[in-house]
Amino acid sequence: MSDVAELTAYPPVSGPSAISAFERDFTAKRKAARINWALGTAVFVALFIATAWLGDFFKVTQVTLPDGSRDWRWIVPAGIPRLGEYIEKTLPVLRWESLGADLAEWFWRWRIWLRLLVETILIAFMATTLGVIGGFLLSFPASRNLAPNRWVLWICRRYLEIARTVPELVWALIFVFCFSVGPMAGVMAVGLHATGALGKLYSEVNENIDMAPLEGVKAAGGSWFDQIRYGAVPQVLPNIISYTLLRFEINVRSSSIIGYVGAGGLGQEFRTAMSFQEYTDLSALFVIIFVTVVVIDFGSEKLRHRIIGLEGRS
C-alpha cells in the first residue's frame, strides 16, 4: 500500500482522541517493557544461582576453629580468611631503618630473575611478531566481506578458532613434548594462540570497512590482492596497530606463566617458589611482572597515540 493510499485508508487523528490514543499506546509499551525486564532479570538470576550451585559456592565444608574444634561452615566465608593468610605469607618484612637490606633480601635472586625477565620479554616479542604475521594474512580471507569464496572463509575461520581455543599452557605442553624444554616451545605456543586471537580481531575490523575503495580498485582492473592492499589495509591499519600493542602486553603476561611447564621465562621461577614454599619470592616475581606490564602499557599507549595522531590533540 502506498503512503497516499495508507493516509486515505487510515487518516491521522488529532485532538483529545489523539492524546488518549498516544497515552494508551505509551502505557501498553511501558507495560510490555517492564514485563520483558522482569523476565530477563528472572532468567539472569536463575542462571546465576544455577552457576553458583554448580561452582560449589553453596557448598558446606568442615573447618578448624581457633580453639581447635571442627565445625561445618559455608565454604566461601570459611575460605576468605585463608586467602588473607596466604597473601600475608607472601609479604616481606620491610623496616625503614634497614630498608636496603630488606629489599636486597626480598629480591635476592634478582640477577637470575632479570635474565629470565629479558627472556620472557623476548619470547613475547617474537610470539607477537609471529602472531601478527599469521593473524594479518589470515584475517582477510576470514572476513565475510573480503573472502574470495565460502570454502576459504570456512577453512580460515576454523583454523583461527582452533589456534585460539586451545589454551597457551596446553600448546606449551605439546611443543615441549615435541621440541624439548626451552624458549622455543614458549614462542611457538604463545605465537600460535596470538595468531588465532589477532586473526579474529583483525577480521572483525575488516568487516566494518567501507567497501567503496575496494570497488574502485576492482573497477580499475585490480586483482583481489590489489583490493586488499590499496582498499582495505589503509583503512584497518590504525586498529591493527592498536590491537597488536595490546596483544604484546597480554603476551608478556602469558610468557611469564608458560615457563611453569618448561617453556622458558619467569614461569619456572614461579614453579620453584611454589614447590619450595618460598612465599616472598612469589610476591617479588609478581612485583617484577607488574612493573614490566605497567611500563609496557605506558610505552605502547604513547606509541599508539603517536601513530594514530592523538598525541598532538591531548
UniProtKB/TrEMBL annotation:
PROSITE patterns to which the protein is assigned, alphabetical: ABC_TM1
Signal peptide limits: none
Membrane topology: Multi-pass membrane protein
Keyword Transmembrane helix applies: yes
Family stated for the protein in its record: Belongs to the binding-protein-dependent transport system permease family.
Organism: Salipiger abyssi
Protein name, per record: Phosphonate transport system permease protein
Cell compartments where the protein resides: Cell membrane
NCBIfam families documented for this protein: PhnE
GO MF term set: ABC-type phosphonate transporter activity
Annotated ranges, domain ABC transmembrane type-1: 117-300
InterPro entries: MetI-like, MetI-like_sf, PhnE/PtxC
Spans traversing the lipid bilayer: 35-55, 112-140, 169-192, 282-300
Record's GO cellular component terms: plasma membrane
Keyword field: Cell membrane, Membrane, Transmembrane, Transmembrane helix, Transport
